[in-house]
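2024-03-11 09:14:02 INFO worker-7 job=invfold-0412 stage=load source=structure_tokens
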């Protein structure tokens, strides 16, 4: 975590305006409103658009498998030092089929010898996008077993979660109840 307290305080239920309540409606079936949403809904119009795009990345309209998508999201969160992102998606990643060993290995990146070729290519693409905002020809070729749309979804997923990590880190969004900060992401 970059900050030990929020720079922008998450709204409490009794603080939501009608516009903010309306913006949060699509999340009604997700359980408690998370701190990320309680913070971002302070800008309800931006939040609605953010939620629409984020909904695409996390949906089955994204042609990456849920496991592969979470591999990419976790690597992005780790590279961006986003403790909140990591903690949330560590849970989601397990639900999508990543093992505890794989989740820990994500921190090592693409050079770990235990990854298969496609996982290694996903991780390398993520590293290149976060660090250079570009996928090299060699890595693009390593993703050649994917469809064109899947390659696009790799870029869309990294881009979305780089943006999310920037917001979480800068706004100081704190962990929700029940989440644990990974010791490698303490600052």
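2024-03-11 09:14:09 INFO worker-7 stage=emit residues=187
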């Amino acid at each position: 975590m970059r900050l030990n307290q929020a720079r922008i305080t998450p709204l409490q239920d009794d603080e939501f305006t009608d516009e903010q309540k309306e913006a949060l409606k699509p999340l009604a079936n997700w359980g408690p409103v998370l701190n990320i949403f309680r913070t971002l809904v302070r800008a309800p119009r931006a939040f609605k658009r953010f939620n629409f795009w984020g909904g695409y990345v996390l949906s089955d309209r994204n042609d990456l498998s849920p496991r592969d998508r979470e591999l990419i999201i976790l690597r992005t969160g780790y590279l961006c030092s986003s403790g909140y992102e990591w903690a949330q998606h560590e849970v989601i990643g397990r639900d999508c089929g990543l093992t505890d060993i794989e989740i820990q290995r994500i921190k090592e990146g693409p050079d770990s010898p235990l990854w298969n070729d496609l996982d290694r290519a996903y991780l390398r693409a993520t590293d290149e996008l976060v660090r250079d905002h570009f996928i090299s020809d060699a890595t693009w070729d390593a993703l050649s077993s994917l469809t064109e749309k899947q390659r696009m979804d790799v870029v869309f997923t990294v881009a979305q979660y780089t943006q999310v990590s920037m917001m979480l880190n800068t706004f100081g969004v704190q962990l929700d109840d029940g989440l644990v900060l990974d010791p490698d992401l303490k600052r």
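2024-03-11 09:14:09 INFO worker-7 stage=report msg="Residues 13-57 form one domain."
2024-03-11 09:14:10 INFO worker-7 job finished
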